[in-house]
Amino acid sequence: MSRTIPQERYRSITTAFWSDPKVSQSFTAIDCLVFLYLITNLHGNLSGCFEVSINDICHETKLKQDQITKSIKHLEELDVIRTDPNTNEILILNFYRYNWGNSSTVKTGVLKIAKHIKSDTFRDYVLSLCDANADRVSIPYVYPIDNLCISTVTDTDTETVTDTVLLSDKPKKKKYGEYKHVSLSDDQLEKLKAELPNKWEQRIKAVDEYCEQKGVSYKNYYLVIKRWTDYPNTNSNTEERTYNTDNLKEMFKKW
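RESULT FIELD:
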């Protein structure tokens, strides 16, 4: 169901978007357009979570459906957004950090919006952030080059708020494996433990040893470890399948 959008609402994008490391190194041209759309579209709100269909995005961006679905999947893999296919909702990660500030009016507005979020996971996430950031001091103006900004937002659902959306607020990563080649954030490690409960340690060891042996490195070790089984070698003499490392190296060369 569509809703009336105040005419005075606007979102302006800082020029720093184009020099953001994640944008320049990992975004495709379609990713740039889709992410800018997600920041500025009429369905968005101050919570950073909103419902929008692929058809809506197709109609409003003039992109093809396969381009949009591929880009959204890529943005999710880059830890920029999260999606819930059951509710058609999209959550923009890090939106809250530099858009909420410590204004009680803003917090009240976010809480009001959050009650209408259909995804239980997204709703709980936004509500927990309201509690966690109740006493957080907002960061107003300029950010260093490795933490560049995405947009300046004025949202008239609650009050005029001028802050920024941080895209490359990168979590700290730790090194894993005997040779310390595998770099993972705490969140990525927990995801691997949940997704690969009986294999995550073995996968980290395998990737670490492969990097040491071949002298290679990857931008996203989390995805490498997740997709390590996509290229199995049918050697049945090993306890777990070994992998075609040449194909794997070629696959992740562009990453």
